[in-house]
Each structure stands twice: as structure tokens, then as C-alpha cells.
Amino acid sequence: xxxxxxLVGTKKGAFILSSDGKRERWDVSGPHFSGWEMYHLxxxxxxxxxxxxxxxSGWFGQVIQRSDDGGKTWFQPGTPPGETTGPGGMPxxxxxxxxxxxxxxxxxxxxxxxWYDGTQHPWEFKRxxxxxxxxxxxxxxxxxxxxxxxxxxxxxxxxxxxxxxxxGHGSGPRWQPxxxxxxLHTVILDPKNPGRIYIAISAAGAFRTDDGGKSWxxxxxxxxxxxxxxxxxxxxxxxxxxxMNPTRPGVLFMxxxxxxxxxxxxxxxxxxxxxxxxxxxxxxxxxxxxEPETIYVVPIKSDGEHFVPDGKLRVFRSRSxxxxxxxxxxxxxxxxxxxxxxxxxMAVDSLDKCGIYFGTSGGQVYCSPDAGDTWSPIVRDLPxxxxxxxxxxx
Amino acid sequence: xxxxxxxxxxxxxxxxxxxxxxDVVAPVTLRAxxxxxxxQYPMLRGTIRDHVTQERRAFLRxxxxxxxxxxxxxxxxxPEAVTSGKxxxxxxxxxxxx
Lengths: 394, 98
Description:
The structure holds two protein chains of two kinds. Chain A is mostly beta strands. Chain A contains one helix and 29 strands. Chain A has one helix at residues 164-167; strands at residues 3-10, 13-20, 27-32, 37-43, 51-57, 61-67, 112-114, 120-122, 127-133, 141-146, 149-153, 161-162, 183-189, 197-202, 205-209, 217-218, 239-244, 252-256, 260-263, 271-272, 282-287, 295-299, 315-318, 326-328, 346-348, 356-359, 365-368, 376-379, 385-393. Chain A is globular and about 55 Å long. Chain A starts with a strand and ends with a strand. The chains are: A mainly beta, B alpha+beta. Chains A and B meet through strand 6 of A and helix 1 and helix 2 of B.
């Protein structure tokens, strides 16, 4: 029987939730990295025992952690416990070194972006928001960082190199931080086209490369944002998250700051599918593992009130790829609930029936083992949940 | 032998329980101590000083012998009590945040 492993990043540590395919009884492991902000953990599709984690702190900066045994033990790539230095006392690796590429050889990409007051501000590395392991190589992993840029490691997380063509695209001086910072938070790898990667930045918009990261194009046509000077601008949109079903990599679903959007042409154009949602503000969006037209969102009241509307925690599901949405609330609190669900805090497993998972700012992680029809909490009292990922294990 | 006390989060990163002892070649300065610390515990690189600028991270402070050394030149000589191993260099995280 298959098992599932849910990787939960929280404000004060990481937790690993494990169950068999019934998804009724859970073992809880953690906190790992107690006291640190764990923005994201994700397992390698090519080697499920390999998990990467982003450990960060306002005091101590960014650390990358790696597990090669499914989360039982962890180490910083290049510096395993007990082997702190290499020959001659030199460091074995600097797994937390994210340095923007300013070399002339790569075109010396721009070094400033728009600040809150409209002036230009230098790029400053702050943290890794999202780690996206390669679909085929356990040692290759992508990192979306704040201030917005995309990095890649091809040696298991020891060394990181920037895809400078993204910041060098030319629109960078108009990128600006959202309330959470100027973060590159979404990285989607196309399983049918190894050269194609989608990324999204708050608040710059969505971008796509078709040549493995050398060059990038903005893919924001059809997005409309009233809060920017030109609502239909090519850039500047606050994209919150994008999701894709791997069987149809050209079809994308987006939760924008406001609006739920859909693209059927790999992001070249978007149209709104918010339909009958009670509010189209939100952060998460995800797609059913086996039904590419079935999508999930958690509507949030507004950009000024980051909690669910009416005190009710509800997931909304569309089985038609958007526009027509049904409320899913069985097992979720329907009174006096005022939590938020952040952009990386929803995931789906690939079991049959598809399991849906999400975590809240109140520290609950919910699971639906029946594609959203019913829900129950796996844990109720973790620190605020930043991210949820799930691994389906044979 | 130079003694350095780390904040708890950095102790866990470096896999040490208490303070650490470092051999530092004279002249013993804050920069030399941090260089030695990062050489012995490379996982701490970037957590105390910025990787590129080598500036102290904003929410950390350096103390020794009851003095705040955070704004002193990193190339200034440390007190004799530190260089003789009687007193540690303290790396302290700011009391802030949630």
C-alpha cells in the first residue's frame, strides 16, 4: 500500500506528517530546526528520500538543509555533521551562499528595482521562499528567492548560481516588493519540455523561459490589476501562486492578488475564471492530480483582511476548470474562524482518491482523502504554517 | 586559545553544546576570530556576517569583557582578557521578534 509524507514549514520549525494510504492515522515528527522560520520543504520526484528545506531567520539569514533519508536526519549540503572542514581546513561547501550575478560575462544584469516610495533600490538577498527539485535529477534543485531571482544548484544544494537572464530581462526596474517582500515564490518545471520553466514574482508578474533559463519573457497578458498605474501593464501584477497539472503543462491556473485566472496557452494569455467565488482574493491554488479540470482555492476576505470570509473556513472546488465553484466545508470550522492560508500551503497527493492538504496561519493542517468532499485536521496546534508539500510514496 | 559563545540557534547549526575554542593567529582581532570560527565551522558562514559584504548581520551584536564591540573596527585588537582566554567573545542575538 502507498504511503504519504506531508512536509510542513512553519514560523518556528518544520514538521513531517506520515500516514498510510488511508490517510486516517498520522505520525507527527518535529519540530525540526526548532525556532527557525521554515519557508519551504520539498522532496525530489527523482528520489523521494531526498528532501530540501529552506531554513531562515531574521537574525542569522538563510541556510539550506538537506535530508537523504526522508527527513529522519538533516545536514547542510557540503558540511555533514562531524565533518566540518575539508582538506587543509577549508570549508567543504557554502550551501547558503546566494550571490547575485553581476558579472560582465553574463551581461551584468540590472542591480536596482523599484522601492516602496518609487525610487530605485539595490537588490538585497534575504531568503529562499521556494525550493523546486528537478523532476529527473536529485542533485538539481531550483530556488526562488527574495529579492526576486531564480537560482539553481546542480550539486545537491552545495553551490548556487543565478539565472541572471531573468533579472536582466529589462523590466526589473519596474518590479516592486509586495507586502511580504519582493519574492520569487513559484517555480514550475514543465515535465514535457525540459527547457521550459514558469516562475512568478510578487509584485512583478509571471515569466517563462523556453531555453532552460537563459532568456525569459513576461506572461501577463490578460491580467488586470486596479492597484497599479496601468491596470493592463505587462508587469507589476501581484501574482500569488500558479498551479499546473503535469499531464497538461500548457494549462495554468493562477491565484492573483485579486482574481483567479486561467491560461490555455502556456501563459501567453490569461482569462478570469473567478465565477461565483465569494471573493476572488486569496493565495493558494492547486489542481487535482488526476482531473486536470478540477481546481481548488481558499478565498480570503480581502487584501486588507487576510482571513477567510464570514468566519468560515471553506475550500472551493471547480470541476470545470473555473467559473463554476462549489463550496467544500464538511469537517472544516464554520464559526469564528479567522485564519489565512498562504501561497505555498496547499498540496495534492497522487493517490486514488486524490488527497488535498492545506495549512493555516492558526497552525492547523487539514487533509481531505476524498478530493475535498470531507476534511479532518491532521494537527491543530502547530506554529503558523508557511508551506505544505506532500510526497506520495510507493 | 580564544573562547567564543554562540547564540543557541547557531550552536545547533554548528553541532556544539557550549562555547567553542579557536586557535587564532595574532594579532587577535574580531575579524580574525570570526575568520577562524567560520573556517572551523563553515556552516556558520553567512549567518554572522554577510557573505559578500562581510558586514555584521543587523540583529547580532559582539560583546567582550562587558563592552559592546559591535561598532568597533573589526581590525581593532581585542582585550587582553580575550586573547589570553580568560574571557569569551559573546555573539548575541537581539531580543526582538515573535
